[in-house]
Amino acid sequence: MHPAPSVILFTTFSGLGFGLLAWLGLGFPAVTGLTAFVFFTIAYACAVGGLMASAFHLGRPERALKAFTQWRTSWLSREAVMSVAALLVMGVYAIGTIFFATALPLVGVLGAVLCLLTVFTTSMIYTQLKTVPRWHSPLTPVMFLALAVAGGALLAGQTTAAAVLLVLAGAVLVATWVHGDGAFARSGTTLATATGLGTIGTPRAFEPPHTGTNYLLREFVFVVGRKHGMKLRIIAFVLAIALPVILLLVPFSHWLALVAVLSHVAGVLVARWLFFAQAEHVVGLYYGKR
Amino acid sequence: MTELPKKTQRKLGLVIDLDTCVGCHACVISCKGWNTENYGAPLSDQDPYGAAPSGTFLNRVHSYEVQPLATSAKVQPPAQLIHFPKSCLHCEDAPCVTVCPTGASYKRVEDGIVLVNESDCIGCGLCAWACPYGAREKDEAEGVMKKCTLCVDRIYNENLEEVDRIPTCVRTCPSGARHFGDFADPDSHVSRLTAERGGMDLMPEMGTKPVNKYLPPRPKDTLPEIDVLAPYLAPVDEAPGGFLGWLDKTLEKL
Prior knowledge:
The structure holds 2 protein chains of 2 kinds.
Chain A: H1 5-25, H2 33-55, H3 75-99, H4 105-127, H5 139-155, H6 159-181, H7 183-187, H8 191-195, E1 201-207, H9 215-220, H10 229-249, H11 254-277
Helix pairs in contact in A: 1-2, 1-4, 1-5, 1-11, 2-3, 3-4, 4-5, 5-6, 5-11, 6-10, 10-11
Chain B: E1 12-17, H1 26-37, E2 45-46, E3 54-55, E4 59-68, E5 80-87, H2 95-98, E6 105-107, E7 114-116, H3 126-130, E8 137-138, E9 145-146, H4 152-155, H5 168-172, E10 178-182, H6 189-197, E11 213-215, H7 230-233, H8 242-253
Parallel strand pairs in B: 1-11
Antiparallel strand pairs in B: 1-10, 2-3, 4-5, 6-7, 8-9
């Protein structure tokens, strides 16, 4: 799959933003006034910035409001509805803590649940696709949620929780890689089933329909950078998980915490790039490519 | 709505005969022509006369080589070349429809055709992600998703001669490899063809239940050794004498 920068930025930052909002909604940390303002500004910048980045990959962004209508069948529509609901409910909670020094616990818990549901609906957009076997697994939503909750804890300054959750998220990340590597083969889809010609013998793509490229090849058949997949996985793991955990275990300082956050964000961006770049769509089979 | 109809009154679709397709790409060109000049946004090209041309097509013809398995009769069977036209299969369980966030994609209850309402499409591309067959292509110029309409603006078009009220790819095919009809009617031309020739689904494991069927190539004929000139070349005289007899013996000795 083509690793579009807009979608990588969107999923990474909205995941972090909603993760942080969920922690704030649960009262970790229980902040008020100016401190609360700073926390909520960071959370909203990540979540709303991510959502706006996602609009950049639309062909007709001016019609984006129509995407709220099909929540009955479409995970993308559900994500749109959930994200707005989460931002509105958390907005009420934020106003309470910033201006009135009052945390509304029920509103906060509801907002936190909506934030996590938003991350879940985002992940389901990818998980639902049978056409991309690497994504079509229960591990995909677990990975999105684990990274959002761990990254949110890191941003919320919950050092102990963040360290534990980062280790768990790291385990899930490794599990998605190991499980994902064999997913295409396990799906059973081959050029033989794609063409129905397997009954005669072994099919091989002989000539593509055209000499140039097309939308399908640009969007679904991305083979650049796979060569360095293993190195990038190690880089992603070190930056997103290992380095922040080490920095959390040493005595706390704000500078080290900032380095931990930046390292985590950079690592998740690399991991998310791999999530797209290493995902293979079955349509590539028709072109003799993966 | 992007909810799929439980059942459609008719199931219009295509039968594509992989035995007779000659790979001429006439269906590709006629499809591009009709769908650029008629319903919806034109199918644009980018850099059409430049170094890296690319464009939107609703129908493309692939070519595959199949190496048959060796048998005792044929130790080294020759490979077969199969031309493979591919367009929207108008699936009964179309994953492209349910993922659409705006309701632009829909499957018609009356005839099962899967269409895009271009004025509702935001061009998010998720339907193309959900389609295993590569049937949907986003138009670069228009920013909306394009797909085969089964020539919905031809098949019901009373301004056309009756013979032309079929999809343009079917009308154009010079080898009769494409057939159009109603699969809900067991006596239709396409239903009978599918039954007789073992029409098959592409990627049945995806659970999309495609309406379009592909007819597999027929087994290759195994011809007996026939030489129409053989009777004229048979030796007329088994034991020639005279000069020819001398020549025959001399040539044998060499």
